[in-house]
Amino acid sequence: MSGFSERDAIKFVLKFLDLEGFLPRGDDVADLPIDGRILGLKIDGFSAHNSKLPWNSWSDFGWKAVTAVISDFIAKGGEALAIVVSLGLPLVPESEQIFKETIEGIKEATKTYRVAFLGGDTNSSQRDIWIDVAGLCSFEKKPIPRNGAKPGDSVIIIGEYGLTGAAFHAFYNNHINVITKFKKILRATSRPLARLQLLEIFVKHRDYISSSMDVSDGLAFTLKEIAEASNVAIRLDKLPLANEAIEYAKLVGVKPIDLAFYGGEEFEVVFTVSKDHVQEIIRELSVKSIPYTLAGEVIEGDGEVYYRGIPVEKRGWNHFRALKPL
């Protein structure tokens, strides 16, 4: 599979999908209009090798897997109803404890997000430990696609960035002793919290929100996906950089902006909104204490993203990047 990326896999699978609802094929949730309702389906997962950082517990591992699905539902405007889980573990003495702690983390997350945990499946894995979470949601209004951004729309970025980028940089560059000094980075990568409060705003103002995506593959990748899918360009003037990411960047000699754009597993949201209604929406974000940045605007273009006039490269998380030929 040398040279075969996660994006290549997705493109191949899209050719075989049977149904397209209101959301385009390849969006982060598949919607299913049925009997006057709109349901949404989502599955997400990862391996411990790629996603369990050294300071994460196994309950954190389970929590994060649930959060990944809930965050996608929120970004589309869906209310999560239930999840099921598939878990693979090698046959080693510590597997029982790992299993129990992971399930405990899953249950903690479902209680927090007010979603039913309905069971799942267990599997034997030869080496790595992996988890998949499949979820069901419902939509009160039409789901929000990634391909609806229009020139003139405002771009709103939820949350702050660079924390997960710093964590993954430390992990892959042997700076664990440095990163453990930053409590906010550790917290953001152990128990990320999906923005449940955002759902009410999305439902209320659905008619004015043109596109939305969960940020889990990196901010740059998400912005480029919205721009490419919508056949527009995005011009950013502001970027919400976390202070701890700036401090870490100084210590290890990297650019804070790279940590912000090219992280992963942020589980935040980026959306575009009609300029005529943006002030009303940001007032409600402020009332709910949801951190946001009115970051820029959508302009005419063909998939480009610019930050202060400089093109932003499309790079993001790729689960297949570590694969080697068998």
Task: Describe the protein.
- The structure is a single chain.
- The protein has 326 residues and is of the alpha+beta class.
- Helices cover 37% and strands 25% of the residues.
- The chain contains 12 helices and 12 strands.
- The strands form 2 sheets. Strands 7-9-6-10-8-11-12 form a 7-stranded mixed β-sheet. A 5-stranded mixed β-sheet has the order 1-2-5-3-4.
- The C terminus is likely disordered.
* Low-confidence blocks of residues: 318-326
The helix-and-strand class reads alpha+beta
Under CATH, the homologous superfamily of the largest domain reads: PurM-like C-terminal domain
Main sheet characteristics: 7 strands, mixed
Number of domains: 2
Q: What is the C-level CATH assignment of the largest domain?
A: Alpha Beta
**Helical coverage, percent range:** 25-40%
Q: Any idea what the CATH architecture of the largest domain is?
A: Alpha-Beta Complex
CATH topology of the largest domain: Phosphoribosyl-aminoimidazole Synthetase, Chain A, domain 2
Please report the distance between the alpha carbons of the first and last residues: 8 Å
Q: Strand-and-helix sequence, N→C?
A: HEEHHEHEEEHHHHEHEHHEHEEE
Strand residue content? 25-35%
List keywords for this structure.
single chain, 326 residues, alpha+beta, 60s Ribosomal Protein L30, Chain: A, Phosphoribosyl-aminoimidazole Synthetase, Chain A, domain 2, 2 domains, seven-stranded mixed sheet, five-stranded mixed sheet, 12 helices, 12 strands, 37% helix, 25% strand, disordered C terminus
